[in-house]
Amino acid sequence: MYRDLALPFKFLIFLLIFSIVAMLFFAVAQRFGTPSEGVLNDPSPKPFTVVLDAGHGGEDGGAVSDSGLFEKDLNLSIALSLRDLLEANGIDVVMTRTTDTLLYDRDVDYHGRKKALDLAARRKIAEETENAVFVSIHMNAYPLSQYRGLQVWYSPNDPHSQELAEIIQSNAHSMLQPENDRKIKSATSGIYLLHHLKCPAVLVECGFLSNAADADALSSPDYRNQVAFLIFLSILEAQNA
Ligand SMILES: [Zn+2]
């Protein structure tokens, strides 16, 4: 009988010693962790730079609304607001343009090539930016005027493009246009920049200038700020995803 009692007692002593040794081990491990632990546990994301691209410019006005709004001006207005929001939150931004201009070298023979040179220049800016996230701002237009709503395209070359596009499209629905059930679309070769860029890249068509209600909303600086704000929040959300 004594022997029977002794066994559980020995087991309890063993458990006690094991627990003390384990606690000591973890205390020492925490105090003198290996150098690699800091790197592995570092929660700070890799810094990135948003390359903001206001589509069109200068002699290329882009789409035009019946009321006379030019796409190039709305694109730049939203891009500048978005730049200010990003920079105020410590995110680096590179703009492809900040004025009403097309990007082509005036010293070369640009005749018939202005648009191609312009797109190549925008591509070069994105490719020369380290850890770039490319966000292009455009307006849509379609022969049938009933079509409306923000639409996001993404580059098929980096999976983060689709992720960011999904977040922007979903935030457009929840924050700005509850009736907008559009789905994101993968860019084909028709969208030169998204087709060629290897970094995360999206193109936001902020609305249809061929639709009177969209054009009217986009004519308001407040509405354009709201569009910039939802893209800004989406970039933050994608960063933390
Ligand atoms: Zn456009």
Features of this protein?
Aminopeptidase, single chain, binds zinc ion, alpha/beta, 6-stranded mixed sheet, 14% strand, 49% helix
H and E order: HHEHEHEEHEHEHH
Strand order across the biggest sheet? 2-1-3-6-4-5
CATH architecture of the largest domain: 3-Layer(aba) Sandwich
CATH topology of the largest domain: Aminopeptidase
Ends distance:
62 Å
Q: What is the CATH level 1 assignment of the largest domain?
A: Alpha Beta
Q: For the CA atoms, what is the radius of gyration?
A: 27 Å
The helix count comes to: 8
Heterogens: zinc ion
Class per helix and strand makeup: alpha/beta
Q: How confident is the prediction overall: mean pLDDT? A: 89
Q: Largest beta sheet, briefly? A: 6 strands, mixed
Poorly predicted sequence stretches spanning 5 or more consecutive residues: 28-42
Would you mind describing this structure in some detail?
- With 241 residues, the protein is α/β, with parallel strands linked by helices.
- The protein folds into two domains: 39 residues; 192 residues, Zn-dependent exopeptidases (Aminopeptidase, 3-Layer(aba) Sandwich), CATH 3.40.630.
- Strands 2-1-3-6-4-5 form a six-stranded mixed β-sheet, sandwiched between helices.
- Helix 3 packs across helix 8.
- The protein is elongated, with a radius of gyration of 27 Å.
- The N and C termini lie far apart (62 Å).
- About 6% of the residues have low confidence.
- The structure holds zinc ion (ZN).
- Zinc ion (ZN) binds next to loops.
- The site of zinc ion (ZN) has 5 residues, from loops.
